[in-house]
Amino acid sequence: STEALRGWAEEQRARATADRAEIAALLPTVPATSPFAAFYRDELVRLQFVRDGARADGAVVFALVVRAPVRVLMALGAHAPVRLVDVGLNANVPPGGTYRGLLPDDVDRLSDPPQRPLPPH
């Protein structure tokens, strides 16, 4: 529902605002040559982007996790609107397992950068 999406967007904005304020306060305490300083500066930009972009009326991308026989998943992956199908060894998700979002270039393989790149600004 639009109301649920609005609540989600408000929550994301609030979290990004709080996280950004915390990092902004921490950044001056880190030496400029420290690798953490660059990470914190990138986080400030990323969190600003989240804060500015989390809107209930924005574009939404849907993703699904499905369980099916391998042959069905392989056939699904052959359809043009489907960007990626990762066929696993079985349908079990380990405890603490996580699902990660796709990057625009992840068409047939999920990339594994340590930090997701920021959108152009």
Characterization of the model:
The structure is a single chain. The protein has 3 helices and no strands. It is an all-alpha fold. α1 (2-26) runs antiparallel to α2. The protein is extended and about 55 Å long. The mean pLDDT is 79.
Number of helices: 3
Strand content: under 5%
What is the 3D form?
A: extended
Main beta sheet: none
**Structural class by SSE content:** mainly alpha
The topology string of helices and strands comes to HHH
Assign a percent range to the helix content: 40-55%
Radius of gyration: 18 Å
Layout of secondary structure:
Blueprint: H1 2-26, H2 35-53, H3 70-77
Summarize, please:
The chain is mainly alpha-helical.
Which structural traits does this protein have?
121 residues; mainly alpha; 3 helices
